Amino acid sequence: MLIKKEDLKKDFKDNLITLYAEDVSEASLEHKYFALSEVIKKYMFENWMKTNRNYSKNEVRQVYYFSIEFLLGRILESNLINLGIRDLCKEALSEMGINLDELCVIEKDAGLGNGGLGRLAACFLDSMASLSIPGHGNGIRYRYGFFDQKIMDGYQIEIPDNWLKDGYVWEIRRNEKAVRVRFNGNVRMVNSNGRLRAIHENYETVLAVPYDIPIVGYDGSTVNTLRLWSAEPMEREFDFSSFSSGDYTKAVEYKYSVEAISQVLYPDDSSIQNKSLRLKQEYFFASAGIQSILRTYKKKGKPIEELYRYVAIHINDTHPSLVIPELMRILVDEENLTWEKAWDITTKVVSYTNHTIMSEALEKWPVSLMMSLLPRIYTIIEEINRRFYLEVKDKFNNNWDKINKVSIIQNGNIMMANLCVVGSRFVNGVSELHTEILKKQVLSDLYEIYPRKFKSVTNGITHRRWLLKINPELVELINDAIGSSWIKKPNSLIELKKYIKDKDFCHEIADVKLKNKIKLAKYIKEKNNIELNPKSIFDIQAKRFHAYKRQLLNIMHIMYLYNKLKENPNTDIIPRTFIFSGKAAPGYKLAKEIIKLINCVADKVNNDNSVNDVLKVVFLENYNVSLAEMIIPCAEVSEQISTASKEASGTSNMKFMMNGAITIGTLDGANVEIKEAVGDDNIVIFGLKAYEVLNYYKNGGYSAMEIYNNDMRIHQILDQLVNGFWCVKESGFIDIHEHLLKYNDEFFVLKDFDEYVKAQEKISRLYQDKIKWNEMSINNIANSGRFSSDNSIKKYAENIWNV
Ligand code: 26V
């Protein structure tokens, strides 16, 4: 579709009139944002309709990506980029005296995700559409997204994210496509014509209403759909006339209990487990999604037995795992297929990605809860488990230890990862290392049963957002050097290697970085009132706060530097700005205490004139997609310092390298592959290896106390945690102290400290050689194409979905 500037201007002005009865001079930025978005929507909708018609007419296999999180961020500018009209639009608006950037920031982030997992889902949608793969998202339309974080007196405060307050332009409510989802009640088995039949009675019905968001691919031709479900009461059940019969409060209670299902995104923390509302959410979108897929499929007029030819369902972690018994339920109870046939279809259609090896994060649900909330689904899981048991008991020679480990139901709990492996065609980890750990440890017995199910697909990020959109000046440099073919073929970024020894190019790269840093320094001055030296090294750790990600190691290194400078003011230090950003789960005490510690250290360091020429510490509140877009282009050092084996992949590591930062990291997750890609000289690696960590967990032999007693730097830092050194008023950082000493430092912070300090010294040394540093930076950018999510999606398409 060819869009002309004059048409765009006219459409925009028309919209201002029809929406707000205003002209350009009268409209507020908000109104202009909405008017523009409506124009862009119209441009997308034509191809959306075409894409949908094409999908329903032609016999193409559709992929449905089920995820309880989609962390989209803002999408106006991405849509403009993918439609190929960002510059045109900028120009058109500027001719009317409007700055596009000012409109883009009006959009509220769609923060329907916690972090990496949700953002991955969003990047994958972008890649599927850009590669013209018929791939759609299926999730929940949360009324409140991930909380907004405020820092008050150094502490994290959570504020509800009312992102829908002013309406969301990119969605369409589709009343006519609503489906019903049933909860509670009881199940009775009856014999009908020689077949056992399940009758589900006395259930409560919830209406699932879909909201569709168009996902436009790069070049605009393919427009896929993200379908998010909202939970609403059935009108019949929520009948105000019952007021007269005295049931008014009951009716209101019903309404609220139903709406609660899609009310709020759970901020992941250890307390999710056993939350019945969470289980309701999981079944709600799994069931609604499956019903909607089957309805679409049946319109094609194909026999249900052939479903697997036309449909691939992917489950992003175990949260959508009830897809498996739900599909079984419909095939057996409603389509009247035999169990065997239904199971054959289900296990050909579904595939599963695991995203963590942390045992606390592996989902399990009490049998009692499942039985009462989803009685029919429970009986199906029980039957899957029974048949699976018959299959493995011979294979494992009645080895009960092993049989129990693979069992779907264990000690009164349903183990969702086991259900997923048994019920899926393929299972994959999200980096090579992570997949190896799944095979050898976490899911080793299941791997023994199904070796061919296991695959590895390393995560990726969409370079269209994480480079093209967020770092325009770097993009201009790249395009001048190697042309713009990398936008369609991200691996072509490798051509930049030719420029590594090009002095001019090196200088230009450094200039762009400096410009970006100056912009960020200005923002930080306004936001935090901290003055930064843009020539200092910008060293950034931006991600969720989790003990295993070890923000603590980072801040302890800063505490050590401070102590060293105080002891010897002549210590030669290359000026550094340490920037932290990220949210802790509201119930995660330790993580919140680490945030407080960072803010206390920042306060003291930044206000101490004897050190603040060389050392600055900043905590940027409310890390979200938009903030990530702002800070990532400014990083020179990317902190990827998780305890080896714990970070399944990581994706910010990829975003930072793509924008020219050098990684300081452990050999964990995708860092291993980043090291392979850039070579040992272009990354700084330190710390325990995954097998060493796993070995300590298995066999013991680590004593944090011993390190505390022998390393005086650590001794001093730990003592300062509890003697009021950093925050005089506070009672001290007792939880952190105990975590490290009393509970023996579960994530090996003390163990890796010495190597981390040395790695940081190496970073400083490297930075002094500006030429070398810029070469490293170019090398990182050049090798980052491999981590485009286009590559991940191609692998899924070929090896897993068969599309
Ligand atoms: C959740 C929890 C909750 C309880 C406390 C411990 C804990 C640890 C981890 C998690 C995360 C669960 C799933 C998840 O978000 N995994 C992330 O997925 C990303 C995309 O694949 C990947 O890059 C991250 O490494 C991985 O942590």
Automatic annotation (TrEMBL):
Its EC number is 2.4.1.1. GO terms for biological process: glycogen catabolic process. The keyword Flavoprotein does not apply. It is an enzyme of class 2 (transferase). InterPro entries: Glycg_phsphrylas (IPR011833), Glyco_trans_35 (IPR000811), Pyridoxal_P_attach_site (IPR035090). PROSITE patterns: PHOSPHORYLASE (PS00102). SUPFAM superfamilies: UDP-Glycosyltransferase/glycogen phosphorylase (SSF53756). It holds the Pfam family Phosphorylase. Its cofactor is pyridoxal 5'-phosphate. Keywords: Carbohydrate metabolism, Glycogen metabolism, Glycosyltransferase, Phosphoprotein, Pyridoxal phosphate, Transferase. The keyword Nucleotide-binding does not apply. GO terms for molecular function: glycogen phosphorylase activity; pyridoxal phosphate binding. The modification N6-(pyridoxal phosphate)lysine is found at residue 655. One of its GO terms (cellular component) is cytoplasm. It comes from the Bacteria. Phosphorylase is an important allosteric enzyme in carbohydrate metabolism. Enzymes from different sources differ in their regulatory mechanisms and in their natural substrates. However, all known phosphorylases share catalytic and structural properties. Allosteric enzyme that catalyzes the rate-limiting step in glycogen catabolism, the phosphorolytic cleavage of glycogen to produce glucose-1-phosphate, and plays a central role in maintaining cellular and organismal glucose homeostasis. Belongs to the glycogen phosphorylase family. This is Alpha-1,4 glucan phosphorylase.
